[in-house]
Design a protein that fits this description.
The protein is built from ten helices and twelve strands. The chain has 307 residues and is α/β, with parallel strands linked by helices.
């Protein structure tokens, strides 16, 4: 079944061309079922690219999804047209004031790893968002910096600076094959990684309500389940397009910034060759499993979420 998004959102045409089922508000209003309400708190500078990436994954399930785009209230993006933000986004303050509830919320990453959490200009509001999820969201998915922010806020688990950027496609181990979130997963696989910080496994292990589901010998924990807060934290990027790492690499090369060729990404590690996507199937499995778990457990009455 389709994902419901505005017909004039750029992702509508992108996903339609890719064969993913999408539905306009008018079409959805004629169906007598309740769609799952999923919010996307988009902290990335390239808003449209990020919308497409996550809509692609959560829209590939047999369920109807209503996607709501949310931004921080005071923070203004410089990389996305103002009319796009005005047309498709609501501020968190508006969402909070409305009292509405969501079956799921994705909190994206943000390119601010070098800052302490407390130095981020919107940290106080983001803390309010994370506390709000406990009464207004059935299941929350924190991605990369968003996941690090959540595990720090709720558990005090710190992010640690790396000597060099973890950049490329790193092999992960499936530590919990029986987890419903890993249904259909291989024992090991690769996932794109692009970060200057990491979470330490021994610090995660100190918290009994945190379970590491996926991890790498090279770049540490990848996916953590937080039962107490009904949340998942992923520190890598299943949502990346085939050429996202290439875009980052080309950008840094053009800027003269120190950067290594992304590991295990290009054939023979040769950046003159087109990159290979070897994570797409697991990306769809993870987000499809997350959507399914929400569908199986969320109250039919939205007002009952968080009670």
């Amino acid at each position: 079944m389709p994902i419901k998004i505005p017909a004039d959102l750029p992702a509508y045409d992108v996903l339609t061309r890719e064969g993913i089922m999408v539905m306009s508000d008018d079409q959805a209003s004629r169906q007598d079922i309740r769609p799952l309400r999923i919010g996307l708190l988009n902290l990335m500078p390239k808003k449209i690219q990020t919308e497409n990436q996550f809509a692609r994954l959560i829209g590939a399930t047999p369920l109807q999804i209503e996607l709501s785009l949310i931004r921080m209230t005071e923070h203004q993006t410089r990389n996305t047209a103002a009319d796009h933000m005005e047309s498709f986004y609501r501020t968190f303050a508006e969402v909070e004031a409305s009292g509405e509830k969501f079956d799921g919320l994705i909190i994206t990453g943000a390119p601010i790893e070098h800052l302490a959490f407390e130095d981020v200009t919107y940290w106080d509001e983001l803390k309010r968002v994370m506390d709000w999820t406990q009464t207004h969201v059935h299941s929350t998915f924190g991605v990369c910096w968003g996941g690090m922010a959540m595990i720090y806020h709720f558990h005090g688990v710190k992010k640690h600076a790396l000597d060099h950027k973890a950049f490329g496609c790193f092999r992960q181990k499936n530590l919990a094959p029986s987890s419903p979130y890993l249904r259909g997963f291989s024992d090991n696989f690769v996932i794109p990684v692009s970060r200057w910080t990491e979470i330490h496994a021994n610090e995660v292990a100190q918290h009994s309500d945190l379970t590491t589901l996926l991890a790498s010998d090279e770049v540490g924990p990848c996916l953590i389940q937080d039962n107490k807060h009904r949340a998942l934290y992923i520190f890598n990027h299943f949502e990346y397009d085939s050429d996202t790492l290439k875009q980052e690499y080309d950008r840094d090369v053009a800027a003269g910034a120190p950067i290594n060729v992304p590991l295990n990404y290009y054939p023979d590690d040769d950046p003159n060759q087109p990159p290979e996507n070897r994570w797409r199937s697991h990306a769809h499995l993870l987000y499809g499993n997350w959507i399914n778990e929400i569908y199986q457990s969320t109250p039919y009455d939205l007002n009952a979420i968080g009670l």
